[in-house]
């Protein structure tokens, strides 16, 4: 949990009108994310199309992969990742399809169901809908580590839109702790 | 033998009046009647359930509560049930059904307006003649309703069926009805099929009565974009989707010999239909150009009709001193009804400013009033055509108000970084970071609503990129309406066998996730690869604005035929019926499948054989929801842009569940497991790269010949390598024999099949010995409909 004295930006929704009645995401700092990953039985990182225009996110995703976290690449993000040696579990299916698959307990592409899913590099309004589906219809722990606070994730970074450097530093901090 | 039966006998006919209603004529026996003419909710339910078993509905709630009745609001989160017993999944299915009802009602009410008006003007015996090359005039009406319309009066019969079904489905969304989300989806499909019929009625009626192009591939090219009008002339701007009201403007100007003294330009589909009426009309652009055009002060009068028009039009126009004439009862806008006023009085009230706008649902009067008002306003206020701000100082002062609070960023549909653009302009005077936002800005104006300083953000963005915005003009090929039967004869076989790798139908609104040019980049990839590209509505006019380095749009680079490597603009939203119609005609004209009341067989044929994929890069309206769902019921998958996830529902299959993917093979008489082609009926993509690859993969069909599959796989694999960086994840499941493999990559791919997928290869013969899900059989004849299987096994 982020405490006020730590001076993280406030957890402001990526879209002020994307409101639901159920619990909103717990805004978390990097160390919490790292702990969630360490405790996970089968975590996975899902990457999106923003990687095509944000080199730094590619670098981060590569490091996750090198730390042993499998990657599902969507939105064309596989291309820069493959160029840097990543072998994604999937590269053809869209986030929409991957989310539908995740909702099915029989989806075990590496032999087990995923219990913790991290999302990096997505258009916020697209990811928000998928997080909503996973929130209501699955028991998966979803963690949004994009620059936007995602209310429908179980855990989300706070809103870092104004400070990209802080966002990158937080991502690096997760990596340093797993 | 003649026999007198019991009854009432009238001896004396004094004071008896006899009314004869419609004389029921027997339908000409043009084709044997199929199993489902004029279907109700239940007749095609089995077909829907088959589809939904494979393509499982996926829900992504926008709200997890329901407040549709007074027992609520109810918390439905985590699929809880509300007071009425409905759970979240079913509530979302109901909401999608309602959206599809709205979409279907829009097109069908539009059709009703048109048909009733045209029957009054031309009579109900006015013949439906779509030209010598179109004999299957109404494939949807034939297939769904089971009639072959010959006159405007016959179109009414189709409309009556559609209206009845829309009401029935809408009824099912009332509290305390359906409890199965699958059955709601079936109803959504049903009402969306009615939507397709409504669209077909509307477009056929206007083509025949208004003399629009009749399936002509080389229609005129018309100017399109923000900077198209000569500002030295009075400008009449028409906006909406029902050309019936604004068409008389052209008639009046032609009659008075003054057509060249005015500019008549449109926004949204009325623009398309005005150009279909006369190619002297021009196209400003889609819905996202409404505020651009109005706030730039380009029009001297605005004429609105119905659908997808801003709900603050009166406010937007009056702030610019532009009189508004509202014409459709769907959008009266709080304006006084002046139907009974004299033309001179209406003109005087608008020009003097006594009235900001009027409601005038009398087309002939609109035709006279609009030019007269435009002329007077133009004379009085020639310098009103300005660049969003009266001066640079005014623009600078507006930018200076920004405090970078970011309220705008968190209401913008794209989270555009307006704050950065403003801050940069404040510090340096450089507008470039604001200008670049224009390329993606939908001009929805939500940013202004959230701004605590009331900055005119849309104006700031538009002004910052004014020169480029003004230059973003090109040419759109006028909507041609239906596809010719002769064209279908030519391409039917190559489409069904797969030699033409697919038909990409780019349809829908402007909620693009990217700059407008992205739609052109996506479609050109397919045009170069000899797919058939079809388009309509807002997508079609966006294509007409984007030019290449040589200043040419896709319409100028590729022919307008329904053929490989060509781009067809069918016209406005209601013209989408011709795209569905083309798929149906392939089943009918090429494969000789009977249409009359035979929907499931035709949809089954299309699902298994016709590699057509809908593509809505910027879905926005309810109409887009019903259009897409109607295509889905017809067996056509649809790919939507990322905003499409906000429709909350998709149809996505699970390709790894082998038992879900089967057909009956009529030839062998056996149930056969097949490759999952296509594996989704409605799915969203995030980027243009992903859109391209998804569109190519969803063109694959079980019935492809080896040559066809080879061609489709060649494109799919090449595009995946180009945009995803490697072979697709699933290419191997589409391989039935070595003949399916792309020639240039055959050896490489055989090696991958052996090493990575454990297939057995005979390397001497370069043949696959073991591995594929099924082998290729030239006589393979797939269907998922038991009745069709039984019919052709006989």
How is this structure best summarized?
The complex is a heterodimer of chains A (178) and B (794). By secondary structure, chain A is an alpha/beta fold.
Please provide a written account of the structure.
The complex is a heterodimer of chains A (178) and B (794). By secondary structure, chain A is α/β, with parallel strands linked by helices. Chain A has a single domain (27-177), classed as Rossmann fold (3-Layer(aba) Sandwich). Chain A is 36% helix and 12% strand. Chain A contains 6 helices and 6 strands. Chain A has helices at residues 30-39, 55-66, 78-83, 95-102, 124-137, 164-177; strands at residues 26-27, 43-47, 71-73, 116-120, 141-144, 155-156. Chain A has a 6-stranded parallel β-sheet, sandwiched between helices. In chain A, helix 2 (55-66) links the parallel strand 2 and strand 3. The longest helix of chain A has 14 residues, at 124-137. The radius of gyration of chain A is 15 Å and the shape is globular. The two termini of chain A are 18 Å apart. With 794 residues, chain B is α/β, with parallel strands linked by helices. Chain B has 4 domains: 45-210, Substrate Binding Domain Of Dnak, Chain:A, Domain 2 (Up-down Bundle); 221-380, 3-Layer(aba) Sandwich (Rossmann fold), CATH 3.40.50; 392-471, no CATH class; 473-770, Rossmann fold, CATH 3.40.50.2030. Chain B has 28 helices and 23 strands. Chain B has an 8-stranded mixed β-sheet, sandwiched between helices. A 6-stranded parallel β-sheet of chain B has the order 7-6-5-8-9-10, sandwiched between helices. In chain B, helix 10 (343-352) links the parallel strand 9 and strand 10. In chain B, helix 2 (88-122) runs parallel beside helix 5 (181-210). Chain B is globular, with a radius of gyration of 28 Å. Chains A and B meet through helix 3, helix 4 and helix 5 of A and strand 1, strand 20, helix 25 and helix 26 of B.
């Amino acid at each position: 949990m982020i405490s006020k004295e730590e001076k993280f930006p406030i957890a402001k929704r990526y879209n002020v009108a994307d409101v639901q009645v159920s619990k909103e995401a717990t805004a978390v700092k990097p160390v919490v994310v790292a702990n969630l990953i360490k405790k996970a039985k089968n975590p996975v990182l899902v990457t999106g199309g923003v990687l095509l225009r944000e080199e730094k996110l590619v670098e981060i995703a590569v490091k996750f992969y090198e730390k042993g976290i499998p990657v599902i690449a969507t939105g064309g993000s596989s291309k820069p990742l493959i160029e840097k040696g990543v072998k994604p579990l999937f590269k053809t299916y869209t986030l929409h399809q991957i989310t539908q698959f995740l909702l099915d307990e029989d989806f075990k592409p590496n032999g087990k169901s995923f219990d913790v899913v991290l999302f990096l590099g997505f258009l916020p309004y697209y990811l928000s809908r998928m997080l909503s589906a996973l929130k209501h219809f699955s028991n998966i722990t979803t963690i949004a580590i994009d620059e936007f606070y995602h209310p429908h994730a179980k855990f989300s970074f706070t809103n870092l839109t104004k400070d990209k450097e802080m966002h990158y530093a937080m991502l690096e901090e997760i990596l340093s702790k797993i | 033998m003649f026999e007198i039966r019991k009854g009432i006998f009238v001896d004396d006919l004094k004071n008896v009046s006899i009314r004869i209603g419609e004389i029921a004529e027997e339908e000409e026996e043009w084709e044997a009647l199929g199993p489902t003419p004029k279907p109700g909710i239940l007749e095609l339910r089995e077909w829907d359930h088959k589809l939904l078993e494979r393509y499982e509905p996926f829900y992504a709630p926008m709200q997890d509560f329901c407040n549709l009745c007074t027992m609520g609001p109810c918390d439905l989160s985590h699929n809880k049930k509300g007071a009425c017993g409905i759970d979240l999944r079913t509530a979302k299915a109901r909401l999608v059904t309602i959206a599809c009802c709205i979409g279907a009602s829009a097109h069908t009410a539009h059709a009703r307006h048109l048909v009733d008006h045209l029957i009054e003007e031309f009579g109900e015996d006015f013949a439906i003649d779509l030209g010598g090359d179109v004999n299957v005039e109404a494939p949807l009406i034939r297939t769904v309703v089971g009639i072959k319309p010959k006159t405007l009066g016959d179109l009414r019969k189709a409309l009556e069926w559609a209206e009845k079904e829309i009401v029935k489905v809408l009824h099912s969304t009332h509290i305390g009805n359906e409890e199965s989300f699958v059955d709601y989806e079936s109803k959504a499909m049903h009402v969306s099929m009615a939507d397709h019929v409504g669209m077909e009625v509307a477009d056929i009626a206007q083509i025949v009565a208004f003399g629009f192009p009749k399936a002509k591939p080389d229609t005129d090219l018309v100017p399109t974009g923000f900077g198209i009008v000569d500002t030295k002339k009075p400008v009449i701007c028409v906006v909406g989707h029902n050309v019936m009201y604004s068409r008389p403007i052209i008639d009046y100007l032609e009659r008075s010999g003054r057509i060249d003294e005015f500019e008549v330009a449109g926004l949204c589909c009325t623009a398309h239909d005005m150009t279909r009426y006369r190619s002297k009309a021009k196209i400003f652009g889609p819905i996202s150009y409404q505020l651009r055009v109005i706030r730039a002060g380009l029009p001297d009068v605005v004429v609105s009709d119905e659908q997808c028009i801003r709900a603050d039009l009166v406010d937007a126009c009056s702030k610019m001193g532009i009189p508004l004439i509202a014409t459709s009862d769907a959008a009266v806008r709080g304006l006084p009804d002046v139907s009974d006023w004299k033309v001179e009085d209406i003109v005087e009230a608008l020009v003097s400013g006594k009235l900001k706008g009027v409601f005038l649902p009398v087309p002939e009067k609109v035709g006279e009033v609009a030019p007269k008002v435009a002329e007077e306003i133009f004379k009085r206020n020639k310098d009103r055509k300005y660049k969003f701000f009266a001066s640079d100082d005014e623009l600078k002062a507006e930018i200076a108000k920004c405090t970078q609070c970011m309220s705008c960023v968190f209401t913008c549909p794209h989270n555009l970084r307006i704050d950065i653009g403003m801050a940069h302009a404040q510090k340096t005077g450089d507008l470039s970071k604001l200008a670049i936002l224009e390329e993606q800005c939908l001009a929805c104006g939500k940013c202004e609503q959230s701004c605590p300083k009331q900055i005119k953000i849309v104006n700031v963005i538009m002004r910052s990129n004014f020169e480029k915005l003004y230059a973003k003009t090109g040419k759109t090929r006028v909507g041609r309406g239906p596809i010719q039967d002769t064209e279908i004869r030519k391409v039917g076989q190559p489409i069904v066998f797969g030699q033409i790798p697919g038909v990409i139908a780019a349809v829908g609104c402007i909620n693009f996730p990217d700059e407008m040019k992205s739609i052109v980049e996506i479609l050109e990839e397919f045009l170069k690869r000899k797919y058939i590209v079809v388009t309509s509505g807002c997508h079609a006019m966006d294509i007409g604005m984007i030019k290449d380095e040589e200043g040419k749009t896709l319409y100028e680079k590729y022919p307008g035929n329904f053929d490989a490597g060509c781009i067809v603009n069918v016209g406005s939203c209601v013209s989408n019926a011709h795209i569905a119609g083309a798929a149906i005609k392939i089943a009918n004209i090429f494969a000789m499948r009977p249409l009359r009341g035979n929907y499931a067989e035709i949809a089954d044929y299309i699902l298994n054989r016709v590699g057509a994929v809908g593509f809505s890069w910027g879905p926005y309206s309810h109409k887009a929801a019903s259009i897409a769902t109607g295509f889905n019921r017809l067996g056509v998958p649809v790919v939507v842009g990322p905003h499409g996830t906000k429709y909350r529902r998709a149809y996505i299959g699970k390709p790894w569940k082998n038992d879900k993917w089967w057909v009956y093979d009529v030839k062998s008489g056996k149930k056969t497991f097949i490759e999952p082609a296509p594996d989704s009926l409605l799915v969203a993509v995030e980027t243009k790269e992903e859109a391209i690859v998804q569109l190519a993969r969803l063109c694959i069909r079980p019935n492809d010949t080896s040559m066809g599959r080879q061609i489709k796989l060649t494109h799919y694999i090449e595009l995946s390598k180009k945009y995803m960086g490697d072979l697709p994840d699933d290419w191997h499941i589409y391989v039935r024999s070595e003949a399916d493999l792309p020639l240039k990559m055959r050896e490489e791919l055989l090696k991958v099949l052996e090493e990575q997928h454990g297939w057995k290869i005979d390397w001497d013969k370069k043949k696959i010995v073991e591995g594929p899900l099924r082998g290729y059989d030239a006589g393979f004849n797939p269907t998922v409909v038991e009745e069709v299987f039984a019919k052709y096994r006989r």
